[in-house]
Amino acid sequence: MMNNYLSRRLSVLLLAIIVSIGLKAQCNDYNFSFQGGEVVNYHAYYNWGFIWLNAGKVDFMVDDAKYNNKPAYHIKAHGATYNNYDFLFKVRDTFEVYTDTAYLEPFEYKRVTNEGSYHANYKYLFNRQNRTISADIQKEENPLESKIIPWKECSFDLLTMVYKARNIDYSRYQTNEKIPISMVVDGEVHDIYIRYLGKEQIKTRNGRKFNCLKFSPLLVEGTIFKSGEDMTVWVTDDLNRIPIIVEAKILIGSVKAVFVDADGLRNPITAEIK
Predict the structure, then answer these.
(1) E strands within 13-117?
(2) Shortest CA distance to 73 belongs to which of 41, 42, 34, 40?
(3) Coil, strand or helix: which one is 35?
(4) Which residue has the higher pLDDT, 84 or 146?
(5) If you write DSSP's letter for every residue of 212-263 in order, what string do you get?
(6) Every domain of the chain and the residues it spans
(7) 3-class SS at 3?
(8) Comparing 247 with 198, which gets the higher pLDDT?
(9) Between residues 62 and 171, which one has the greater pLDDT?
């Protein structure tokens, strides 16, 4: 039972990155923050008492693609424990989505979850004509569940929300302002919000310093997190809006994702303090 619990920590951390920076984007904002070919890497740390263990990694990737002969971005995120920790808790989680290149509206989203003995698959097809989502969900040995979900305006899947949020003009918001977001999670649309906490300098474990924007999600009951402000995220205060550190408290201990490096960025990282 404990191994199954531990096995889900990396997945929680990946979702923490996604949920915690998912600000409500203006639907008509154009993408200025990333491009095809971008890769961003993170180390995943787990805390037991006073010990932080680097037990896994999370990678985000963007490729130029086509979807039904239309220009698209193919965005992927993969979270995994390192092989030498697999005997305790093996995690291999993959998220991917195709979006348009103008407003980042999703076409198709998939999530494959392998966490210890737990396995699940999700697939969403987004219909722009009737504003619905066709969802296919299969968890463990349960039968495939298919349903139609109303697709409200400015509502995105988890992965698209990360990249949509990177194109927001944060100067519009005041410190401590609550900003609502709407996301499709586990086959349901959740209306949640975060608190903008202003600007702060942050230092990574390898000594790099960045000027950042800071946020704390206010999550409602019914999501994968309890309600409250037990998660904090810092993103670069430049045109890239790259998450640098994400911290989240869980039932036992804490999890943390720390920025390692990035390739193929659209803009220079001007937020780094040399």
Answers:
(1) 39-48, 51-67, 70-81, 92-100, 106-115
(2) 34
(3) coil
(4) 146
(5) EEEEEEEBPBTBSS-SBS-EEEEEESSSS--EEEEEEE-SSSEEEEEEEEEE
(6) 2-260+269-273
(7) helix
(8) 198
(9) 62
